[in-house]
Design brief:
2 copies of one chain form a homodimer. Chain A contains 12 helices and 11 strands. Chain A has 353 residues and is of the alpha/beta class. Chain A folds into 2 domains: 167 residues, Isopropylmalate Dehydrogenase (3-Layer(aba) Sandwich); 158 residues, Isopropylmalate Dehydrogenase, CATH 3.40.718.10. The first copy, chain A, has an 11-stranded mixed beta sheet with strand order 3-2-1-4-11-10-5-6-9-7-8, with helices on both faces. In chain A, 53% of the residues are buried. The interface between A and B is large, with 48 and 48 residues.
Chain lengths: 353, 353
C-alpha cells in the first residue's frame, strides 16, 4: 500500500537504454529492463526507450511477459564495438545505438541515457553532443571501490583525464560529493586527495595547489590520503588524476584475478589441497562479494550536460537494472542542476550546495 | 663438500648493517646476522659491521653463540626514526647509525650498506654521501610484486621520483634489468612500461617519449602494460613514475589488509561462520604466502655510487638475513659497474650490457 502510493507520487521519466552496448547485448539489456519493472525499487516510474536492432530486441522481448513493461523501441542498425576508437563514433557510427541514444538525450526526447558499451566512446559522444555543464572544465568518470565499511568509495577520475589541473580535481571533488549525496544517500561525504603522504607539502605542484583549493572549499575535505587508505573507507570520495585512477582500477581487477588463479592452482594439487580449497570456497565467495561490480550498477558520467550512466561491458541483467535505477535517481535528484549551482556560485547565489 | 669449496672460492666482503634501523632494532638485526652465518647460502662469505648502540647490540649478541659469526661493531649513539625528515639526517643526525653506516661505505671502509630504517632518509643520505653512478640522472627504489609465475616483478620507481622525464624512466628500466639479471638470476628480463593502454599513443607525453626510447634500446621491451598486467608476471621489470608506483604499493598493502579484515569479521558471526573461516584458514594462509615481503628481503637502492640495500621497517630476522645476502650479491656481481657500462656506452665500448 505504502509502496503503491510512493509509486504514484514519483515522477515519470523517459530513459534511453543502449540495447546493443554490453558484451551480451541485447540479452542482458532486455532482461535488465524486465527486472527493473519487476522490482520497481523505491517507486521507480519510467518509460524505457530501447535503442538498437529492433528485430533482435523484439525477438528477445517476445520470450517474456511484457505486460508489466512501459517501453518503446527506437531502431538503430549499427553498433559501436569495444574496439572502436571513441572519436570515430561521431564520424562513422551515427546510426549506432550509442549515437542515437545520446542524440535522443541531447534533443531532450529522453531524460537520461544508459549504456554498458565502450566507455571512452560514450564519454566522447556525450561530451560533443550534450556539451559540458556550465562551470565544468572536464567531464569525469569514477568507479566505486569496496571498503571495510558499509559503503564503497567513489574514486574519480579513472581514465577520462590523464593530465589534470588543480581546478579539474577540485571539480571532480564537487561533482563526486553531490553525486554521492544525491544518488547514494551519503550525507556530507568525506573527500580525500590521493597522494603519497599525509602532509600538505607532499606530491606534485598540482596536488599541493589542489590541497589548498579543497581545504578552502565548502567540501568535507579530510586531507591527503594514501594508497593504503583507498579501501579503508576513510573517504567517501577520492580524487586523483585519470592515469593513477585507471592503473588502480585495473590493478584491483588483476589482484582479484591473481587470487582466483592462486586458489585454482592450489586445487590442482593432491587430494588434501583439493579438499582445502573446497572447504574454503564458501568463505572466499563471501569475502569477494563486495568486489562484485554488479552491485554498484554503473556510475554517472559527471560533468556532461545530461544524465548519462555507464556500466561495465560485462554487465549482468542485475547490473543493467541497477544502472536504470541510477539513471532515474540522477534525473530525479537534479544532480546536474546542483552541480551547476555549486560550481557557479555567482550565477545562482541562493540554493548553493 | 661442494658447498665448502664454493664457500672458500667466494670473495669476502665487508657489509655494514644499520643495527638500529628497523622497527624491532637491534633485535631483528642481530638475529638476522646470526641467521646469515648459520645458513651461509650460496657460499656467502662476509664480515658484518654492526653500526649502532654498542651496549644494546652486545647485550643481544651475548644471548647467542657468536663463535660462527664474523663481525665487528661500530658505535653510533644516535638513531634516525621513521618520523625524521630525510633531509635532516645530514644536518642533525651525523652520529646516527644510518649516517655513519653510509659514511663507512662512502669511505670504502665497507663494500655495502644495509638498512631497514627510514627509506627516504637512506635515499637522501646515500645520494649525498655516495653520489650518483655516472650516467644516472636519479637514483630509484623499486619493490617486488608477487605474480602468477614463479618470479615476482620489480616495479620501479615506488616513491623516490614523483616527477619523471623519459630519460629517468629509461634509466630505471636499464638499472632494473641489470639488477634483476645479476641479483635474481632472470635472464634477459622483460621490461614493461606502465600505461593506461597498450597502444604507443596512450598516456602522457612523457610516456609516449619513453615508449620510443625503450623500443629503440637494447632492452627486452615488451611495450606498454596496464594495471591488470602487473601481477600477471608478463613483465619482469615494470617502470613507472614514483607517484603511481607508491600509490600502487600502498594500495596493495591496503587490499591485503581489507581481505584480512573481511575474513576476521566473517569469523565474528555465528558458529557456522566461525567454522567456515576456520576451515578456510589453511587455504588463505597458503594463498597469501607470496605476498609476504620477507621472502624478497629488501631491494637495492639503484643509481647511487655504492651498494645499498633497503628493507621494510617491519623486517623480520629472516628478512634481515635476506637483505644481507642481497647486499652480498649486489657487490659480488658488480651491478653498479654494469650500470655504468650500460648507461655510458661511449665511455666503455667493450663490455657493454
Amino acid at each position: 500500500m505504502d509502496e503503491k502510493r510512493k509509486t504514484s507520487n514519483r515522477r515519470n521519466y523517459r530513459i534511453a537504454l543502449d540495447a546493443m552496448g554490453g558484451d551480451f547485448a541485447p540479452i542482458n539489456e532486455v532482461l535488465g529492463v524486465i527486472k527493473a519493472f519487476e522490482s520497481k525499487l523505491g517507486g521507480f516510474n519510467a518509460e524505457i526507450v530501447l535503442v538498437g536492432d529492433e528485430d533482435k530486441i523484439r525477438k528477445k522481448l517476445n520470450q517474456y511477459d511484457t505486460s508489466i513493461l512501459n517501453y518503446s523501441i527506437v531502431h538503430a542498425p549499427d553498433v559501436v564495438t569495444m574496439h572502436d576508437e571513441p572519436s570515430m563514433v561521431l564520424k562513422n557510427k551515427r546510426n549506432s545505438s550509442m549515437f542515437i541514444g545520446v542524440e535522443l538525450l541531447a534533443k531532450r526526447y529522453v531524460d537520461a541515457f544508459v549504456s554498458a558499451g565502450n566507455t571512452g566512446a560514450v564519454l566522447a559522444t556525450s561530451t560533443i553532443l550534450l556539451g559540458r555543464i556550465p562551470g565544468v572544465s572536464r567531464p569525469t568518470i569514477g568507479t566505486f571501490f569496496p571498503t571495510k565499511n558499509k559503503y564503497p568509495s567513489l574514486v574519480l577520475d579513472v581514465g577520462a583525464n590523464v593530465d589534470v589541473k588543480p581546478r579539474y580535481l577540485y571539480e571532480f571533488a564537487v561533482m563526486g560529493s553531490i553525486a554521492t549525496t544525491q544518488m547514494y544517500g551519503i550525507e556530507n561525504p568525506s573527500v580525500g586527495l590521493l597522494n603519497i603522504g599525509e602532509e600538505e607539502s607532499k606530491g606534485t605542484d598540482v596536488l599541493r595547489q589542489t590541497h589548498k583549493m579543497l581545504k578552502e572549499s565548502q567540501l568535507n575535505f579530510i586531507g591527503n590520503i594514501e594508497g593504503k587508505d583507498i579501501l579503508s573507507g576513510i573517504s567517501d570520495v577520492i580524487v586523483c588524476d585519470g592515469f593513477t585512477g585507471n592503473v588502480l582500477l585495473k590493478f584491483a581487477e588483476g589482484f582479484y584475478s591473481l587470487i582466483k588463479s592462486k586458489i585454482k592452482s592450489m586445487g590442482n594439487g593432491n587430494v588434501l589441497n583439493k579438499a582445502m580449497v573446497l572447504l574454503a570456497a564458501p568463505a572466499l565467495k563471501k569475502m569477494f562479494k563486495d568486489f562484485n561490480y554488479e552491485n554498484y550498477g554503473g556510475v554517472p558520467l559527471l560533468g556532461v550536460n545530461g544524465a548519462v550512466i555507464i556500466g561495465h561491458g560485462k554487465s549482468s541483467p542485475e547490473a543493467v537494472k541497477n544502472m536504470i535505477y541510477k539513471a532515474y535517481e540522477l534525473v530525479d535528484k537534479n544532480v546536474n542542476e546542483k552541480i551547476v549551482n555549486a560550481l557557479n556560485p555567482t550565477l545562482v547565489t541562493s540554493n548553493v550546495e
